[in-house]
Design brief:
By secondary structure, the protein is mainly alpha-helical. The protein has one domain. The two termini are 26 Å apart. This is DUF7144 domain-containing protein.
């Protein structure tokens, strides 16, 4: 294979991972926002199983999830621009999302683990393949 074929294949793979990261961030942000709205409008929906040290009122959790969700979704849209700052912000908000979902484990454990796994995949895609996608 020629050097240009390898380079174009690498750029295509990088573009695919960045598109995955952007779409995943928009979806993760929407999921956070929906979780937040449910917590704000229906306090009885979430049932706490175990008591953990970082326990908040469900209304507080609702606002946290709503605001972080909006931030993650907006950062996801900016990832599509290919700007370096968008990748750094994306890594930061995906990390924040993972930490918040770890804290949310007592309320919705399996869902939280799924979102944490998606956040880790987003961080990996932005950190490893972001440079090839940049304008």
């Amino acid at each position: 294979m020629s050097q240009t074929t390898d380079t174009s294949r690498g750029a295509a793979v990088a573009s695919g991972f960045i598109v995955f990261a952007g779409v995943a961030m928009v979806l993760i942000g929407a999921f956070h926002a929906f979780q937040g709205l449910v917590a704000l409008f229906n306090d009885d929906f979430y049932v706490v199983g175990q008591k953990w040290i970082f326990e908040f009122d469900l209304t507080t959790w609702g606002w946290i999830h709503l605001l972080v969700g909006i931030g993650v979704a907006v950062a996801g849209f900016f990832v599509f621009t290919g700007a370096a700052w968008a990748r750094f912000v994306g890594i930061g908000v995906a990390g924040l999302s993972a930490v918040l979902n770890f804290m949310w484990l007592p309320y919705y454990p399996i869902w939280s683990l799924v979102i944490i796994a998606l956040d880790v995949a987003v961080i990996w895609a932005l950190a490893v393949h972001g440079k090839e996608f940049a304008n």
